Structures are given as structure tokens and as C-alpha cells.
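ok so i was messing around last nite and threw this chain in just to see what happens. nothing serious, just curious
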Amino acid sequence: MIDKIDISPLYGNDPKEKQNTDKIIFSAANKIGFAKITGIKSFDFTDEKKQLLLSIFNLHENKKREMCRWYFENSNQNVYRGWFPLQNGSPTYKEGIDIGPDIIRSVKHDPDDPLTEKTPLPEECELPNWRSIAEEYYHAMEGMGFVIMQSIARSLNLNEDYFDKYFVAGNSTLRLLHYPVRDKESFGGQEQELMIGSGYSLGKPHVDSGLLTILALDDVAGLQAQLKGGKWFEIIPENDVFVMNFGRLLQKWTDNKIKATVHRVIGYGKERYSIPFFFEPAVKSYIKPIENLNINSFEPFYYGDWLWEVTTQFIEQSGIKHLRNN
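result:
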């Protein structure tokens, strides 16, 4: 049902191999909006590295509070980046951390724009070697994002570097997620509403807001995509395989030639982890219609404005919408 695509030709110089890979990617993007990906260049995401990256969830609760966002811990200064805790009684039941590009490069912080703030992270002494693996992972996902967007540009008959300029000094987010097993308290008296078939809700149905999401899963099932007609399809995790899906902005920008698919997370009584990477343009990237493509045109806008408007509707970004002045 979902194509498994070896993207290694996208890193090479063979035009024919690239063209064949482009066709498979664009077909998946156009029909279902999801694909399984192998062949990411120069990155071996071993189980050891994955477990080290996820070891952040083993930190003491006091350290997690230090990294928590202002809305959840009012003594902290970070608003957009950082830790978010579990929320009982919600269709979304997960904890995690959002990590920005400051993990790999210097980012100038605009005091009026939380999108540019520094990410609070554990010290080396608290999680030895964790930061180096996080940096390696972030670099690999950014590199993948560039070659995928170049592939999409070619499929749209644009110059392959058409999208590149938007992602210079990009604002991509690396998110680490933990979905515990829901207990009675976590349902907040809404057991009946949050039960779904033989499972229960861990993530509210939604489409991703941006352009491209690259997801590393553990071996626990639960991610579901909604097909035409409303039927839900279970995406079975596989070792050494990433899941890629496309966001609402890319659908808008490509005049619906790429599909942003509704998806959700279901729990089946097992603890679950996942690592999504949201490949995002720079905050000041000016998104405008693509000439000869956007039949249903739109008014140009800055990516940061779009991002703030859509992400502050999610529970992880509760109570902060009024805090951006740009």
C-alpha cells in the first residue's frame, strides 16, 4: 500500500537513476502522501544510536522541568523550544522535546520571535555523547530534506534548486517523542471517547503543517494514515526504514499536486517512541506562488507567520500564541 523507496540515487550524479526515483517519490506524494524511505547517505542510524538519542527520557524529572516550556513551567524563559509534559484527558498523550537548528549552528535570537530561541538541552555530563548523536541525526535529516525537495522540484518541471534558497538557515525541528501506556488517570474520565477499536487515542488526527516530515519509528505499531473514503491504514514499522509524509503548506504551494494526509497514533497497550524531523524553511522565507503552477493562487507570506499560526493550535504549544510580536 505504501511504497518503499531507495533514495540513494538522489545523492548521486546519474540523471536516469534520479529520474526513476523522482517518479516513484512524486507518485507517492500525489496519491497517498506517505512513503517508506531507505538509502539516506552517510548515516547509519544504529539501534545503539537510537537508544542513546532516546535516553533523554531517562533524565530525572527535575531536569525535564528545567527544559520545560514556559507554559508548563512558568519560571522558565523558553517558549517554543524545549520539553513538553504529558497531558491527562487529552486525545494527544505524549511527552517530548522540540530541538531547533541551534544544535548544529549559531542562530541569532530575535527577542520578539520565540521561533528563533535557543533550545534548552542536557549537559554533556548528564548524557554523555547524546549531543553528538543529535547533531549527526539533525545534519542527516537536513541533507535528506534538501534532496527530496530537489526531487519534487524536478517533478514539477522547476529548476532542481528552486526550493533550496528557502531552506538556507532553515528552522527545522527535531522532535523526540515518548508515548507511555495510557492508564485510568490519563483518560481524565474520557475512556469511552478516547477508545478506538481495540486501541486508544495517543495522537489527535491531523495533517502536518509544514512541508516534509521524516520519521524514525521504534518497533511498536500505532501510526495510521487516513485513505480516501476515511478508512485508516496501519503503517507497519520496519528496521532501518524511515517514514516520510508531506505537509499542508507543500500541498498548498504545489497547487494540490502533493497530498498532505491526515494521520493519527493509536495505542495498543505498549510503550512507544518515535523521532519525527520537520524539514522547515527559514523563519523569514517569503513563500509566494510558483509561476505557472499555482492556479489557485494565494497571497505571499513569511514562513514564520504560517508556522506560528498553525503550531500554536497544538497542545504542545498551548498558551503561547500571544507571545510573538513579528
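not much to say yet. The chain has a mean pLDDT of 94.
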